[in-house]
Amino acid sequence: MTEEEPKNSNNESPVRRRRTIGGNGEAEKPPIEEKNAINAPEAVENDSPKQRKRTLSADSAAQPKQSSTSSNRRTVKLGDSSVKQSDSANRRSQRPPREPKPKVGDTRRPAAPSSEAAENDSSNEPKTDRKRRRRGGRNRATTNRRPGTPVEAILDDAPVTLDEAQLERRKGRERKGKPIGRYQMLVHVDEGVTHIAVLEGRSLIEHYVSRPSDDVSEIHGNIYLGKVQNVLPGMEAAFVDIATPKNAVLYRGDVTYDREDLDGDKSQSSLPKPKKQRSRFSRKQDGARIEDLLKAHQSILCQVTKNPIAHKGARLSTEVSLPGRFVVLVPNSDTYGISKRLGDRERKRLRGILDKVKPAEHGVIVRTAAQDVTAEEIERDVRRLLDQWQQINELVTSAKAPSLLFREPELAVRVIREEFNKDYRGIVIDDLALYEQVKGYMEAVTPALADRIELHDKAIEPLPLFEKHHVAEQLRKAVDQKVWLPSGGSLVIDYTEALTVIDVNTGKNVGKSNLEETVFQNNLEAAEEIAKQLRLRDIGGIIVIDFIDMEIRKNRDEVVKSFEKALARDKTRTHVSGISELGLVEMTRRRTGEGLQQWREAIIAAL
């Protein structure tokens, strides 16, 4: 609201005049005419800075502007000071009160209606307040779980009650009050990385390493609501987005379907249907093709069967299974099975229990750990898994693909759940939080073996857990390329992109009688050690073993037989071909991870 006066012909400095509302220092100043306001700058220059303000009256505001002889000259009619004060007071009284400026964190409040707005709205009907929708969409308050939170495995439950006879029978062997067994499990936690060592006697036979659950690399067993990205008929596979950096792959042999699914809406997610799995390499020609079963942007319910390895994504299956301590629940399936490792008499007893507790719409597989367990324990395990499946179904209705629906527990809990039995003389854990979690889980599902879980207190024990049980030095040898044999021979293990090569050498072994006998005995030792190293290092994929050449065919067959017998103790599926004329043995071992070589730096740092 400021205006500048034009410059005078005498090059005098321009005078800037301000007009204020309700000025109080100009009551004694005489009124100024229009001409004097423009042509008499000397009178204005003598005034104080406070008096150089011009006031706006009602008359001057209402009077139209007049044009003078010069187009860039403007005149303003100034009113009396008394009129100024009254007009300014009236204007202030008519103004609505100013609201304070909002600040960060303030909640919005409805503004008080002004007098004019009240008069304008008096004839209209009163408006109802608009209800604001809470964030999170509908069904937010229907469940205690936050939207998008995956279902966790139920580990805490009321302990089962067993009588003295049952506890004594399932407690395992003891000697002088101490439990005895063939195996022992050691769990070491170092800066969030969990190391699990399995000992047979004092020899290290298995080693697992797991980082904290990050939903990226350790996702085996997780259940997802995936979104199909593209279908490749030439590869008989589809790539599925499961909210991981790399898309997972779903092969045609891992897709379960029903004929009714082919006529339905493929845009909706479908639950697994009863279907016998077939290998993707042995699919019948008259079966449905993958492009008929899956379409791009389709939502499907799937489970990870193999962790992502290197540049490869995870592998999926649409047949979902929920593992428990004694049984495995296969939802929406007619699967019915009992572990073949159990005896015929025990299988018959468990079959009678399974006929009573099996849900009509779901399949159940009884595990080896169910030996000598009661019907109540199996029923509780089935009920626990049914509760998990119900929670997953509820989450599917509100989840948006891709999203995680079910997360498996930590690696230590999974290994103990599937491996720990009365053949183990104990489990020693050096982390208090993990010890309490595992102890509570075992007291709930297997109270007879709960007393075999011990805590290694770092503050009291003089040596670390792995140093005390001589695991550290065995791990250092396990990450070396060269492995020495008892007789002086050696193994050299090389890792490549496509396969793993193991070379057998005589080394310092010079023998006693003849060359054929020396080579034969060296190969027998190598066969035993190779089977142990494959299990310890968790080497998978294609493996080529270069045994030392043997002239006698009987010796070659004996080496292969000894090698297969040593591999029988490994729970991972393997396939061995016969030895060739060049002394090469080709074999495959199921790959579940990148093996011990991936954790080489972490193991060296922990030791």
Write the layout of secondary structure elements.
Elements: E1 3-4, E2 16-20, H1 34-39, H2 41-45, E3 53-55, H3 58-62, H4 81-94, H5 115-120, E4 151-152, H6 164-170, E5 174-175, E6 178-179, E7 183-190, E8 193-200, E9 203-210, E10 223-232, E11 237-241, E12 248-251, H7 259-263, H8 290-293, E13 299-306, E14 315-317, E15 322-323, E16 327-330, E17 336-338, H9 344-357, E18 363-366, H10 375-398, E19 403-407, H11 411-419, E20 424-429, H12 432-445, E21 453-455, H13 465-468, H14 471-478, E22 482-484, E23 490-495, E24 499-505, H15 515-537, E25 541-546, H16 553-567, E26 574-576, E27 584-589, H17 600-606
Parallel strand pairs: 2-3, 4-19, 7-20, 17-18, 20-21, 24-25
Antiparallel strand pairs: 1-2, 5-6, 7-8, 8-9, 10-11, 10-13, 10-19, 11-12, 13-14, 15-16, 16-18, 22-23, 23-24, 25-27, 26-27
Helix pairs in contact: 9-10, 11-12, 15-16
What does this structure look like?
- The chain is of the alpha+beta class.
- The strands form six sheets. Strands 4, 10, 11, 12, 13, 14 and 19 form a seven-stranded mixed β-sheet that branches.
- Helix 9 crosses helix 10 (375-398) and helix 11 (411-419) packs parallel to helix 12.
- The radius of gyration is 42 Å and the shape is globular.
- The model is unreliable at 1-15, 20-84, 104-108, 110-144 and 263-286 (pLDDT under 50).
